[in-house]
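== Item description ==
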Amino acid sequence: MRSKAQAIPAWQLYGEASPFPDVLHIERIVDRASGLDWTIAPHRHLHLHQLFVFLSGDIALSADGAPLAVTPPALVNVPRGAVHQFTFSAGTDGHVLTLPASDFPELFRPSAEAAAAAGRLFVVTPTAELIAAIDRLADAYVRPAKFRRTRLRAEAAAILCTALDLSEAGGGPVDGPAADVRIRAFAAQVAETLRQRKSIEAYAAALGLSPRQLRRLCLKATGLTPQAFVEEQVVREACRLLAYTRQTVQGVGFGLGFDDPAYFSRFFQRTTGLSPSAYRGRLDEPWSGP
């Protein structure tokens, strides 16, 4: 029988398994929730940080098993790994901003000055200026423009920092499994040694844990075994390298510790549904909006 943690899906965007290659994603709540009967089932994101900005509607939110009070206007910060679910009244208005953590190391790297604050669940009341900034970002996201990626990155970073300022000034942080310092340390070790393909036993020993203890903590915090978590990070890094460098597919595989290029291709396709070449080819298509 699968445990409750194992049964909780880990999505890229909700309901989507394929990584998205853009620097960020922003959409109106109605665009996704209306097609799902205004209900978002429990799920988590392993690599994605999200900000929900609610302007109107009735919202029932549960995060890491605890209900959170959300009265619009409200901003909800949902860090990577946090299990969350929503039920909205029809017509609920607002935006969802999604940031791939690996594309914003200045915010989410374990050593980043914002990492600790960003890694907490919290609900705050957004200012009019912050709501206007979200609207500007949403508008810029759908408009091809010179320096688009740089502008989006800068505006999104400013929005998150403003939200963190509001949280420290009086918002309500919420501790949960995603905040377990041992799993944060494990994730940091994995990121730093990804190309070395260390064993789970070695990771556990470095944390002063047994492999069994690490498995239990990792399942609780991420819904994945330690090995599956490492593989998720490998796939994410492979996607990043395929998207943002001109390394050959073989070179990407070698760089991530795969001695056999054919095995790397099979591993990548099993996880993403695309071969590395097909994934890169899809990214090379002209950008035409979200």
Summary: The beta strands are 25-28, 39-43, 48-56, 59-63, 66-68, 74-78, 84-88, 93-100, 121-124, 172-174.
